[in-house]
Specification:
This protein has 228 residues and is an alpha+beta fold. It is built from five helices and seven strands. It folds into two domains: 72 residues, Helix Hairpins, CATH 1.10.287; 142 residues, Heat Shock Protein 90 (2-Layer Sandwich). It has a five-stranded mixed beta sheet. Strands 1-3 form a two-stranded antiparallel ribbon.
Amino acid sequence: MEPLTEEDLREMVLRLAHEIRNPLATIQSGIQLVQHLLKAPGGAAASPEEIEEYLASALDEVRRIDHTVRDLQRFVRLGTRTASHRIEVRRLVEEALGRIAHDGARKEPEVRLVRGPACQVVADFELLATALVELLQNALGVSPPEGTVTVGWRIRERRVELVVEDDGPGVADENREKILRPFFSTSTQGTGLGLSVVQRVCKLSQGGFQWENRQSGGCRFTMILPEA
């Protein structure tokens, strides 16, 4: 893995501090509020429902911290252990689609699958699936609820191209040179490691990673892998 620059390390520290301190503040205030309700004068106490609500909120924030730490661990360990096998691209895409987390409480963008020809690549299945999930989650996160996220694959010059397109705002000119840097993100949530992970996985798979703003709006991300 390429060494991190001083700017990368500074971005990492600031991002981790934000991603960990904010949930901790929520957990602390929730615990303090429950303590206050339990010790309310006159014998008044919080209802079991109120306590359950505060505890559920605290658990959500714990999961957020855990997700941040796991993202960082995965990034640091990436490439230390890989196993190459023949992979059916259709199966890989279907596996990634099955892993996407859906929030049933709100409307989400439609995910459209564009099937390509039968083909295989030689790589680490788990690494590729993880990278593709990162791209899909990123596309869903930037697209409006009424938008569409498209995923598919094609073959060009003996190389398999896995393509994910979103209906988001695209990448601003001032961020074009930054979006693949570790820990860079325009979102208030997340570690900013997703696209860096995808780029690294493609490199480990003897391939490449490209992106571009679409003329119709949104972005197109392409994982390029040698065809088996």
